[in-house]
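In this supplementary section we document a worked example of the pipeline. Step one takes a protein sequence of length 404 as its only input; no multiple sequence alignment statistics are reported here. Step two produces a three-dimensional model, which step three serialises into structure tokens for compact storage. The input and output of this example are shown verbatim.
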Amino acid sequence: MKTAIVILSVVLAILLVIAGILFFSDRQAAPQEPPATTQPVSTAEPTTVPTTTEPPTTTEPPIAATPADSGIVLSGSAVECFTVDGCGDTLYIRAADFAAATGLTLESEQPLLLTGPDTVESTDDGILANGRPFGQGATYLYSPEEGGLLPLLETAEALGYPMWTDDESGVTYITPAARAFELPENVNVPVLMYHAVSDNMWGINELFVSPSSLDEQLAYLVENGYDAIWFEDLAHIEDYDKPVILTFDDGYDDNYTELLPLLQKHNVKATVFVIGNAAGMTHKMTAEQIREMADSGLVSIQSHGYTHDDMDVMGEDTLEFELGESKRVITRLTGRIPYVLCYPTGKYSDLTLEVGARHYLFGIKMVGGLYNTSDDPFLVSRYYISRYTDLSTFAAYVSSAGTE
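The serialised model returned by step three reads:
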């Protein structure tokens, strides 16, 4: 019995050893899972890794505008111009400078819009001048440094602004005021003819209007609602209720010393006809005085011929020289192309009118009474104001202004 119990115990021990060996063998053969770890919780925003991309491309490279020594005078003042890489020799002007020189209003630079007596705008179809397309090759550009840039000569041509290049100096003059326009019909515009303004009567007494009388006459115009205009203002005569034009013949030096201060006092405009070869002569304005009057904003300097000789007896060649040379001299003096001719001593012929129309827009007689815009523009009549014209006569002369 004891022997059986011993044998059974040995067998059980052997079985337990075998089971243990098998158990540990299975554990070693099975794949082990990696131990779990606890990561700290972060409240920071996730980091964005920047991506590398190619720089954007554009079909329009930056505009490189270079100041150019252009020698261009626009409305009496030299203007700054530029050339632009890739645009050849085309001269560009800032749109803001163009607007200031021509009296237009710059409404926008991107896209361009200039408004006023003329309209210039950039569109998908190119630049338009008063609604009409420019010629080929005219391009509006925009530079962050210079702003809007207009092709100057092309813009002036598209708007019909007269241009003249001085062969001697190479300067090109552009004068919007001198361009042709359609006259309105049947408006009365009294044109008054003066000469000297002084109490120092060194010549024919009646030609010397007293400064005190002129002061009284200008005050009358202002106080009674009259508008003293230039001939170019006839293009928009509808802006004036009672337009009159004051003209002064021969360019006497007292026009600078006596007339100009009175015009400034009353803020009244006038037209002065100067003789081309007379600047600086005795009793005549100097070149500097003529230029200062033109720059005053109140005086339009126009032509009284080159020599003041009678034009009714001149041949065609002489007239061409007389009118053309006067035009050149005045343009050089004032920076503005003249567009009105006053016949010296009021004498003219049919040939005078024909040649005059090649150079000017208006021709002015000495006398003849009331001017109406339906009259021949080369036979403009005037009322003569002498030293002895009293205020009641003056008032009668201007009373029909603006009526039909």
